[in-house]
Amino acid sequence: MSSPILVLNCGSSSVKYQMIDALTEAVLAKGLVEKIGDPSGVGRLTHTVGDDDHTITPSLPNHYAALDAVVAQFTQYGPNLADCVAVAHRTVHGGTKFKKTTLITDEMIETLRELSPLAPLHNPPGIAGIEAARAVLPSVPHIAVFDTAFFSNLPPESYLYAIDTELAKQYSIRKYGFHGTSHGYVSEKVAEILGTTELKQIICHLGNGSSISAIKNGEPFDTSMGITPLGGLIMGTRPGDLDPGLHFYLHREVGMSIDGIDNLFNKRSGLFGLTGMTDMRDIDAACHAGDERAIQAMDLYYHRLVFYIGAYHALLGGADAITFTAGIGENS
Q: Buried (b) or exposed (e) across 86-113, using 16+ Cβ within 10 A?
């Protein structure tokens, strides 16, 4: 008797999913949807059952289209989605409202919508995934696992901003950190491999969204992303750290609206702003072909990454392990 759980991870430009038997941890099916919203207009979906890969290249303008394509693959190739006993959703921003795994309800989804301005690239597609999955599987429990939960106990010197204290308290302005499910899991696996939790670790989660963390004896000590997933490392469409004064300059001198600046920094910056491409495989190929924009973009990317590794090495007083994960970290 199996007990299948569907796990959905809706990222800013991708959806990763697995159907896992909760009793045996066997993977019954898995898949990856890539290049959602890509300027080329062409996405890619690979659905794997056993040793069989089924790949299609549909138009994927948004995450609703991506989830529709995933459901169609399950319908055509199996396993039967109706057999699932629960659905687990990787959910990005829980703010101060959600600090642990939470049962999804209509009211909870509305709270997630309220938190969307803090994660405009992630909470909306995450909500889209939740709604699509609830429509397909309305009679099973849906669970949210929050990216921000792991970093909810950062030390004050790491999560506080040097702004008016009362304003920060009133509006819950603080560093939240993201990719917590990744940083938490990877740091645990490193401790398992090295045989001790008494470790100073630096975890580099490098994908279309990228972050880096300092972990001390199993507990988060610092992380690069802040109140939103915009800060820190250079990413697919996000610039990472910027002088905050740039926002004012663009508004006052260039005449950009606040919404325009938001769109620029979340969707038209980072590697895309530097090269016109978001996929590291394409940028890597352009570098090897001698493309100057791509080469310069990679120089910036490496510079920022090394900067953070050095900073966390100093804050921790050394490092016992530096670990690379996520699409770029695992494959580049």
A: bbbbbbbbbbeebeeebebeeebbeebe
Residue 28 pLDDT > 90: yes
Residue located via tokens 């997933």: 229
Q: What are phi and psi of 277, to 5 degrees?
A: -130, 150
**pTM of this prediction?**
0.78
290 burial class (0-12, 13-18, 19+ CB within 10 angstroms)? exposed
pLDDT at 238 over 90: yes
Which amino acids are annotated catalytic?
147
Sign of CA dihedral 227, 233, 237, 239: positive
Mean pLDDT to the nearest integer, 35-51: 90
The residue type of 84 is: C
Predicted confidence (pLDDT) at residue 34 exceeds the cutoff of 80:
yes
Peptide bond preceding 79 in cis form (omega within 30 of 0): yes
